[in-house]
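Budget justification note: compute hours in this period were largely spent on complex prediction jobs such as the one shown. Inputs:
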Amino acid sequence: MLSWGGLEWVSAIGTTDKTALKDRGKAVAWRLIVFVTLLKPLSNLFLAWGMKELPPTLAVNPLLFLRAMVDPLVVIGIVMQIVWLLTRMSLLSVADLSYVLPVTSSGYVLSALLGRVVLHEQVSPWRWLGVAMITLGTVFVASSPRVTATPEDRR
Amino acid sequence: MRWVWLSAVVISAVAGDLLQSREMKTEGDAGAPGLGRVLRLVVTRWKLGLSIFCMAVSFFAFLALVRTEALSFAVPASAASFALETVLAKFVLGERLAARRTAGAILVCGGIVLVAR
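Corresponding output:
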């Protein structure tokens, strides 16, 4: 089972080297951030691929919704969404919500790039400006401390 | 009706994320839990189960919203949950919003609105 290097992190607790512990925690958190950020747009891509093969009347016909659920591409997309949700929950255990939200928003950037490159969609200048703002905002937030609340603050 | 669905999208997303963040923080002391452990926590902790339910409500409310409204309205409008969650993270979860983090969150929020145009 995936452990995000958590075991190495736990074993470091036994040592007195606090810097090593902090560095490992940081590495685990970044591994999770990269995974969460990549998984969401990829799952959306699979869902979009799968849904495009279905008729446009999907929204008004529940039977077509059920048919969509057995489409292999849609199934892959749904499984990826479930893994994304669980991974994001794991990330929330080691990082603030106000840190996770903006940092993982870089998935929007990847979505725009995938849409342009893989699905050959048109991306307007406004959208590219939005991509630039998200990238800059992500850099700002990523350079702030990952955890700011102590257990006492959360009570 | 659009505002009813939009409120359902935003309120349930915010509630789900706040519940999830608060519950998962109690697990973070021993390092980030693996997928199996997270799955066990979802089954055994009712607040995490409730957070998943809230996210499901948000997802289906969003589907209902995009059935009647343009995606160019639905996506930026539902980004309100992002702004609301950041503010509530300070007051409910006790997170500290320093200038850099606040500026970054505002930029990302504005970026999402533009990306959805």
